[in-house]
Structure to design on (732 residues):
């Protein structure tokens, strides 16, 4: 049982929890994630460790409320306990001095890039961060990321904050400005990561993406998270979740994310009934 | 033992056999002729005093019978249900030469069930023995932990999943091994003083080296949880599952109670299960219970070579599973919705014997045919879980992944022992328990002699 110490609403439908879990805080590295089971009958869902504090023995998770289990997680309050929290999982991000690194976060992926931005800056890289969301209200972590890098760029689909357009447009501009980019890291929705890879491919700039397939055990025992990278099937939970984006079969990833969409609606309705709220 | 009718049982998840009455158990136990040199005991990987416990049953003293079994086997209700007795104790029974061997497993099951609910007879020494870490709560880990606790050690089991029991919980379905029984057996181990920590992935949260700083010895029983795939085109289509995923969703996450339990599963009308072992039979029989109309077992050899227990194959057949033997899938095709729609298969024939002594299946050229399916479950086997070996640099393994151990279960790292499926590859519950016992004995010997 792991106590929730802090809860914040960062944007409409995005929450941040700080949880006391010293053994995970101690071992967590940038790029690692956890599996959360918010109530005994819920799913096991993977969430990135958005921050870890070894001294306080806490980790932060930031999640978008998209379905039944994230809804249940969001129904927990400060002082409540999360029954199951497993981690740290996955390979940590590869951190070293690369030179100039562009780190891109889209949607809730903005929260996921925070530990990597922190670590890449600390390792002596020049870090340019691009974050994007549909509109200003959905932008998160602007302030925190601003503190970890010198160059933070913002895009929104509707132009309500920063540049009107997509993160990939900003990436294109950086590259065509003639700046030498040594590495791109992109975390966010599948289409966003795919487009970023298309932008960097002709320039042969190595691009790391963090894949988010459906997961179950997240310890390498079921294979539901399999993704095709460089023509080979890999288990993203233990061999990833970060991979070379130029090698990823994004079409297959998209197909493998959809099999339960119809029944997930039923699960959400069930949870809304449990929580006595009307489904949106 | 009599079984419930196939029609009745495929409509629920309750157990198939009805179990003995007290009279039946006594009658069966009386058949034992109490051999002076009982061969059945030698056939049991944990060396239960079989004639000894049967004698108590024959006298109607069930309490003493359970006590006798529990001297060497902490999980009799499990073993009485899932052990392949036909290949072990019952195979050696002298009565089997001319007629039917004593149904040792059924009697074991009866007395274990009889004891359930009554407080377990616990005997343990004081906790002076030191601290031991056990990785994995499957039968290997549970047995090792139970034995060491009884010897007075302070034992902590680290389990990566949120449930305990390993395959007993996540793999073998409810109708073959009720989870209430597994939980009681685990409670018994806990009553011996063993602490169980779930949600702890060793290798990630603590390395084995780190454990060795806090514990005097480590036992690795992390099982054979890595699912094998065939690496054929279409295997990543929606609707194609590994048996582990399928059984995880159903047994561990209780997807059959969706949406009360939130993990979904989609079982099609026509399900093809690839493989011929216990895992394949379980996946097939679960599918029937969840409403599939046609369930195929697709196996590349013949029924005679099937590694599954005969009893399970028979039950699957009674329940209506269709066996397509000498058949090998080579590709899956998707329908418009992206879901698997067809499995293309080849017909096989048996050729020369291979390394395992079984006749090798050989493809018949141009025998391709297509089978309409909307779910495919790949149950062709599991390999040793690579996670702990990957994160433990000095732990030596075989090329196929098995952790290398001595006859006493010692690995290449002093103080680190291993047993069960992580050493053998996918094997049996009882062999995992046997390994756990051997390692417990060796750990005790080593620590009594002054540590590592
Ligand atoms: C390694 C990893 C790290 C992740 N980190 C985070 C994180 O830090 N914050 C966060 O908000 N989310 C993260 N995710 C995604 C998160 O796990 C899913 O949003 C969550 O499982 C949804 O659960 P649910 O029951 O609420 O919704 P469901 O009912 O399962 O799904 C609702 C909708 O979301 C879609 N969906 C489900 N799973 C995913 C997925 N993995 N990716 C994209 N869409 C999905 C479904 O198709 C459906 O349309 C991560 C995923 C992975 C694999
Ligand atoms: C569907 C199915 C049906 C079967 N039917 C039978 C049968 O009828 N009869 C029979 O005798 N055998 C049967 N078997 C085989 C039998 O279940 C196994 O041989 C036995 O369970 C092996 O025991 P184990 O303790 O070595 O491993 P497991 O039971 O696999 O337990 C290993 C445990 O370790 C945990 N773990 C793994 N990695 C880590 C880590 N890094 N840190 C912490 N924990 C970890 C796992 O989550 C798991 O709980 C069946 C197997 C399956 C899959
Ligand atoms: S989630 Fe099960 S193997 Fe990756």
């Amino acid at each position: 049982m792991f106590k929730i110490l802090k809860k914040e609403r960062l944007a409409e439908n995005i929450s941040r929890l700080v949880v006391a879990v010293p053994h995970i805080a101690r071992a967590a590295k940038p790029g690692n994630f956890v599996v959360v089971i918010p109530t005994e009958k819920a799913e096991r869902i993977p969430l990135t460790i958005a921050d870890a504090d070894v001294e306080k023995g806490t980790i932060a998770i930031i999640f978008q409320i998209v379905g039944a289990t994230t809804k249940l997680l969001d129904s927990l309050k400060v002082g409540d306990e999360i029954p199951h929290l497993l981690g740290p999982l996955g390979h940590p991000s590869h951190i070293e001095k690369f030179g100039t690194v562009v780190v891109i976060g889209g949607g809730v992926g903005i929260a996921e890039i925070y530990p990597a931005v922190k670590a890449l800056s600390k390792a002596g890289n020049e870090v340019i961060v691009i974050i994007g969301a549909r509109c200003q209200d959905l932008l998160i972590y602007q302030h925190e990321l601003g503190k970890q890098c010198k160059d933070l760029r913002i895009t929104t689909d509707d132009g309500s904050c920063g540049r009107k357009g997509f993160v990939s447009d900003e990436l294109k501009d950086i590259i065509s400005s003639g700046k030498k980019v040594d590495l791109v890291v992109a975390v966010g929705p599948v289409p966003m990561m795919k487009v970023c890879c298309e932008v960097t491919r002709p320039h042969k700039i190595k691009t790391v993406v963090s894949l988010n397939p459906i997961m179950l055990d997240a310890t390498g025992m079921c294979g539901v998270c399999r993704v095709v990278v460089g023509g080979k099937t890999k288990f993203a939970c233990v061999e990833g979740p970060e991979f070379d984006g130029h090698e990823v079969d994004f079409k297959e990833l998209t197909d493998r994310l959809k099999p339960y969409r119809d029944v997930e609606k039923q699960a959400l309705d069930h949870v809304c009934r449990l929580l006595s709220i009307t489904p949106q | 033992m009599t079984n419930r009718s196939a029609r009745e049982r495929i409509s629920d998840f309750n157990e198939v056999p009805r179990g003995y009455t007290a009279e039946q158990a006594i009658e069966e136990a009386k058949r034992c002729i109490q051999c002076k040199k009982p061969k059945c005991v030698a056939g049991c990987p944990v060396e239960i005093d079989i004639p000894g416990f049967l004698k108590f049953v024959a006298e109607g003293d069930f309490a003493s019978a359970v006590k006798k079994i529990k001297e060497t086997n902490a999980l009799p209700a499990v073993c009485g249900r899932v052990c392949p007795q036909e290949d072990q104790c019952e195979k050696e029974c002298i009565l089997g030469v001319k007629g039917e061997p004593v149904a040792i497993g059924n009697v074991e099951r009866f007395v274990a069930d009889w004891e359930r609910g009554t407080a377990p007879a616990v005997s343990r020494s004081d906790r002076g023995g030191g601290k031991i870490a056990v990785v994995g709560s499957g039968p290997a880990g549970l047995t090792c932990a139970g034995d060491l606790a009884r010897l007075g050690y302070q034992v902590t089991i680290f389990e990566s999943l949120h449930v305990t029991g390993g395959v007993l919980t996540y793999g073998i379905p409810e109708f073959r091994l009720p989870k209430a029984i597994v939980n009681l057996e685990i409670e018994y181990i806990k009553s011996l003083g063993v602490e169980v920590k779930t949600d702890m992935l060793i290798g990630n949260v603590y390395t084995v080296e780190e454990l060795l700083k806090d514990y005097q010895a480590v036992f690795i029983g992390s099982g054979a949880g890595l699912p094998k795939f065939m690496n054929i085109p279409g295997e990543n289509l929606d609707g194609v599952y590994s048996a582990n995923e399928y059984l995880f969703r159903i047994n561990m996450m209780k997807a059959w109670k969706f949406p009360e339990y939130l993990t979904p599963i989609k079982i099609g009308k026509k399900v093809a299960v690839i493989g011929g072992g216990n895992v394949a039979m379980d996946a097939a029989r679960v599918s029937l219970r969840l409403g599939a109309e046609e369930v195929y077992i697709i196996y590349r050899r013949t029924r005679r070579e099937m590694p599954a227990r005969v009893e399970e194959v028979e039950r699957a057949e009674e329940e209506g599973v269709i066996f397509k033997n000498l058949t090998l899938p080579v590709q899956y095709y998707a329908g418009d919705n992206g879901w698997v729609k067809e499995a293309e298969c080849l017909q096989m024939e048996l050729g020369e014997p291979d390394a395992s002594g079984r006749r090798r299946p050989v493809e018949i050229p141009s025998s391709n045919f297509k089978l309409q399916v909307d779910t495919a479950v790949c149950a062709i086997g599991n390999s040793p879980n690579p996670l702990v070996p990957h994160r433990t640099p000095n732990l030596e393994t075989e090329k196929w992944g098995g952790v290398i151990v001595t006859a006493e279960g010692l690995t290449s790292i002093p103080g680190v022992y291993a047993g069960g499926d992580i050493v053998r590859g996918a094997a049996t519950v009882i062999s995992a328990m046997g390994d756990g016992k051997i390692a417990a004995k060796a750990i005790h010997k080593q620590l009594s002699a002054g540590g590592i």
About this structure: The longest helix of chain B spans residues 429-448. Chain B has 18 helices and 16 strands. Chain B touches chain A at residues 160-162, 198-201, 204-206, 225-227, 229, 231, 235-239, 241-242, 244-245, 248-249, 253-254, 258-264, 266, 338-339, 385-387 (CB under 8 Å). The longest strand of chain B covers residues 340-353.
